[in-house]
Amino acid sequence: MVQPARRMQQIPPYLFGEIARLKAKALAEGKDLIDLGIGDPDQPTPAPIVQALCEAAADPRTHRYDETPAGEPELLEAFCEWFARRFGVELDPATQALLLIGSKEGLAHLAWAYIDPGDAALIPDPAYTVYRVNTLMAGGRVIPMPLLAQNGFLPDLASVPSEEAHRAKLLWLNYPNNPTGATATLEFYQQAVEFCREHNLLLVNDAAYSEVSFDGYRAPSVLQVPGALDVALEFHSFSKMYNMTGWRIGVAVGNTQAIAALNKLKSNIDSKQFPAISRAAAFAIRNLDNRPTLELLQVRRDILVNGLRALGWDVPCPQATFYIWAPVPNGQKSIPFAGRLLEEAGVLVIPGIGYGEHGEGYVRMSLTVMGDRRGERCAEAVERIRASGILG
Fold it and tell me: Which among 110, 152, 263, 295 has most CB atoms closer than 10 A?
């Protein structure tokens, strides 16, 4: 049999394999699992968005290829209007915005648009695996930037060796952050923009969780920094904003040249998203927010954080994202500890090592809990962990 391309060997082993095996075994045995693993909104897409899709899909003009330059103009215009209201930054929808078939697709293709064999990228660790995997797949080299608790899970840009920074082409950031739940300040973004100017880097900020926040916190955009449009691209997703993960719709905004480069690659790979979905997304961002889901997520967050703290587990309380990044008690390793939670408490979490070397010693819990209506499954998870005695 013909062998796959050598680049496929750059994809690291599936580090969640053992947890997946244990999960399948428990389900096959009829056990009731509380799944705090997957970061996928469990609430439905708001009904008005679904209705907008139905109306758009009834228009035969949406049944053909989207032959627009960068995506359905109605969506790009609506998104730029929202961006100006939300962040105070004016964007040109014709040159500074690009439709994505979900932000994951855009992030992956950006690596391919910029990384040649031998090029390097500065990538946070721990991090969403798309940045690292696609840098490697394109033949690039990863320069890890540790995200440490003592730095608020922000990279220490001053500690990046100057020669390494000058060899790199991309600086990847993700705030609010998956998996740590950390947030970035506008002051940090100012430092990052200056760093990229100094070292001739393209700053790529994955802002998929910018609208998932609690306690009145509002995440800034890197594009709010004066001059950021010279060096930065930011990715936004409707998945987390409106519970639309399955719809696969997002937008990249920022530097004109970077938008054009990504668009050039994408135009040779995909034919854009179903225009009816684009129209429904435009309706959403012009007319709706997702407050009921955010209120439910905050209830779950408070139940989990307060409950686990009462058991003696010192877990942080995130201001944004729907993740709790919890240090594993007593210096245990993340995979064995996650395995014990699954087997002994029936609670599924993700081992931090799956997100990179510096994720070791942590587990990620998601607040998107299937079957939960008002936090009762989160409360049950806390009780199961207590009864198991895992925390000692």
Answer: 110
